[in-house]
Specification:
397 residues, alpha/beta, Aspartate Aminotransferase, domain 1, Aspartate Aminotransferase, domain 2, 2 domains, seven-stranded mixed sheet, three-stranded antiparallel sheet, 13 helices, globular, binds pyridoxal-5'-phosphate
Length: 397
């Protein structure tokens, strides 16, 4: 009973020890304001920020001047979409995105509709993949922005980013990608992939919460986001969270250093969990793409049972996981992502996402499979829904 297994790393991660160490000195030792460059303490803070900027730029194959720090992934997404929309409204009012974006994108697009902008939400196939032909068809003369996430937070599907970048470039449209889940899990090269804007968040990769970043390609037309002082070259004002930025830089440094090893290990653990569930539990559906998926993502629907009940029983066994996504749990509507892949409401309701980290072992995976096997069989015994016919009739539990 004392077992504790955290399998919700797509919601957030433990801050790495080296990151905490790096951050600590900026609380009580180097506490100067980075804008106060006339004395040593201020310069130390400034240096920390610029080191982190270089670190992030290197990791993306970007220039240091193209990296801006923000208060997280949601802020970066807001900045990208609103900033491009308002700066380019003389050129057009049309935005293309997908049905499976994070709410930081979807709700921002909805907000912009109040100002006369129009959005096309692209469909995805059963694996959560967009169709490049449909993307091309959606492009209009007034299209000013394509915003398509790099990898999905719920089902892990990785989009063909380089091809999307090429299409955007051919049409002279700005291309933004929410890479919050992809950072550290996928090789990102903003030059090769023709990315104009890219959102990041520190807390999904072993850094602190409340800090993130945005890559803005030189020359891209985008409004400033926070008006005030001259921080972040006047584009995002406010005294920098020096300790957070330093922590983000450290997390990126570690991600770059351990990249290959990290991916190989996670993939191995992920596939063991997928295989274990598939072979031990009947009537399950793997959500997301079988191969083009994040190395830490395992999302299944367990037919005839309800995700919330699974989570409660998992918690009693010491396992933390998620149903749908962290943002949708607590609401009764099934996840917009799962519905977009074509799942019916009933099946979507029985979905659980495990997102693993390198802290777990093969034994942990096997314990999870065994625990799930028991939980699902127990819940199915109590469930009034026994087959697809029942599911269709009730269409919900
Ligand atoms: C977590 C997440 C965000 C939001 O990032 P925050 O730093 O928590 O604001 C945005 N997009 C995706 C895909 C995410 O997974």
């Amino acid at each position: 009973m004392s077992k504790k297994l955290y399998l919700d790393n797509a919601a957030t991660t433990r801050v790495k020890k080296e990151v905490v160490e790096e951050m600590r000195q900026y609380f009580d030792e180097y506490y100067g304001n980075p804008s106060s460059s006339l004395y040593e303490l201020g310069r130390k803070s400034k240096e920390a920020i610029e080191n982190a900027r270089k670190q992030v730029a290197d990791f993306l194959n970007a220039d240091e001047k193209e990296i801006y720090f923000t208060a997280g992934g949601s802020e970066s997404d807001n900045w990208a979409v609103k900033g491009v929309a308002f700066a380019n409204k003389n050129k057009g009012n049309h935005i293309i995105t997908t049905k499976i974006e994070h709410h930081a994108i979807l709700h921002t697009c909805e907000y912009l509709e109040k100002f006369g902008f129009e959005t096309t939400y692209l469909d995805v196939d059963k694996y959560g993949m967009i169709d490049l032909e449909k993307l091309k068809e959606a492009i209009r003369p007034e299209t000013i922005l394509i915003s398509i996430m790099y990898a999905n937070n719920e089902i892990g599907t990785i989009q063909p980013i380089e091809q999307i970048g090429e299409i955007a470039q051919e049409h002279g449209i700005i291309f933004h990608t929410d890479a919050v889940q992809a950072l550290g899990s996928v090789k990102i090269d903003v030059k090769k992939q023709h990315i104009d804007l890219l959102s990041m968040s520190a807390h999904k990769i072993g850094g602190p919460k409340g800090v993130g970043g945005m890559f803005i390609r030189k020359g891209v037309k985008i409004d400033n986001f926070i008006h005030g002082g001259g921080q972040e070259r006047g584009r995002r004002a406010g005294t920098e969270g020096v300790q957070n930025i330093a922590g983000f830089g450290k997390a990126v440094e570690i991600a770059e250093r351990d990249f290959d090893k990290h991916i190989a290990r996670l993939t191995e653990l992920r596939d063991r969990l997928i295989e274990g569930i598939k072979t031990n539990i009947p009537d399950v559906v793997l959500n997301g793409h079988p191969t083009m998926r994040l190395p830490n993502n395992v999302n299944f629907s367990y037919k005839y049972v309800e995700g919330e009940s699974i989570l409660l029983l998992l918690d009693m066994e010491g396992i933390s996981a998620s149903s749908g996504s962290a943002c949708t749990s607590g609401s009764l509507d099934p996840s917009h992502v799962l519905l977009a892949t074509g799942l019916d409401h009933g099946t979507a309701h029985g979905s659980i996402r495990f997102s693993i980290s390198e802290e777990i072992t093969e034994e942990d995976i096997d314990y999870t499979v065994e625990t799930m096997k028991n939980i699902i069989s127990k819940l199915r015994m109590m469930s009034p829904i026994k087959n697809d016919e029942d599911l269709k009739k009730g269409n919900s539990l």
